[in-house]
Amino acid sequence: MKYLYHYTSLETLALILKNKTLCFNNLLNVDDIEEAQSQDMGKIGAFVYVSCWTEDMEESIPLWNLYTPNMHGVRIRLPVFPFVKYHYKRGEMFFGEDTETFINCKALYDENKICVSASCPLLIKVEYTNDYDKLFPKVKRESLVGDLQKFLEAKDMNNLGDIMKDNIEVSYSFEDIGNYKRENWKFQNEWRYKITIMPMGMQELNPPTLEKQQELIRRLENKNNEPPYHRLFLSLAPNVFSDMEVIFGPKMSEAEKIMGTSLLNEYAPKCVYRDSYLKIK
Question: For residues 15 and 149, what is the distance between their CA atoms, to the nearest angstrom?
Fold first, then answer.
């Protein structure tokens, strides 16, 4: 697969071109309101952000209807992983080795609100299913003979002696969150870029201490927590605009096409654009 396709409004195209960024929406804000929900941790999808695309080369009437205003929007084609790549040397941003990533870790470090794995974003092919355990996965992985609350109330490492003998191990896996949708959505043939975050800044979390681990768990366990960001943005590599294609929606007016053409000529002069093949009244 070389390209993915995204249906959106003319206004969003203008923001993508001017800012040279792609928006990732929080799972609380996507069209399928079930996606943020888990079996055991409530709406834990508040810590997952996605940018939704399709692999279908052919134009889709349902996608035009769903994601553009009355078919007056555009369909964007971009190469897979169109993002700016950042390079960090061992020791920078707490990396243990030289690292390449699409995440601007320096900017996140300075903002100090979240931690993100350097492997993000992942590119996921959405699976369509009516399996309850897939649609609403369990997030908490625990081997808990002791009392998690006692762990959270421990004042120092010495205070953990008896608790740790009880073999408390708790972890959280976001691997399945945002990967599944009901079969009703199968027409989308969706691929999505996915970013999972931890709700604690890199400066705040490092170096790790007992108190910081306790605070991170409290934030993850707090079902009323608002997401640290409503949206995240990744920068697009300059060269991808030369390989961009834009299709004007089936019901776009000539005036809208003029505005779209002007935007593309100014910000992406090598971009290919054309009218939709669909003829819809």
Answer: 46
Asked whether the beta carbons of 49 and 232 are under 8 A apart, the reply is: yes
Residue 207's identity, in one-letter code, is P
Determine the Cα–Cα distance for residues 108 and 103; give it in Å rounded to an integer. Answer: 9
- Give the angle 257-56-65 at the CA atoms, nearest 5°: 50
Record the tokens describing residue 16, joined without a space: 């993508």
Between CA 195 and CA 261 the distance in angstroms is 32
**Cβ contact 254:240 at 8 Å:** no
The answer to whether the peptide bond before residue 137 is cis (omega within 30 degrees of 0) is no
Give the whole-angstrom CA distance, residue 9 versus residue 71: 9
- DSSP letters of 194-241? EEEEESS-HHHHSS--HHHHHHHHHHHH-TTPPPS-SEEEEEBPGGGG
Q: Each residue of 14-65: pLDDT tens digit?
A: 999 999 999 999 999 998 889 999 998 889 999 999 999 999 999 999 999 9
Establish whether the linkage from the previous residue to 199 is cis, with ω within 30° of 0. Answer: no
d(CA 18, CA 9): 14
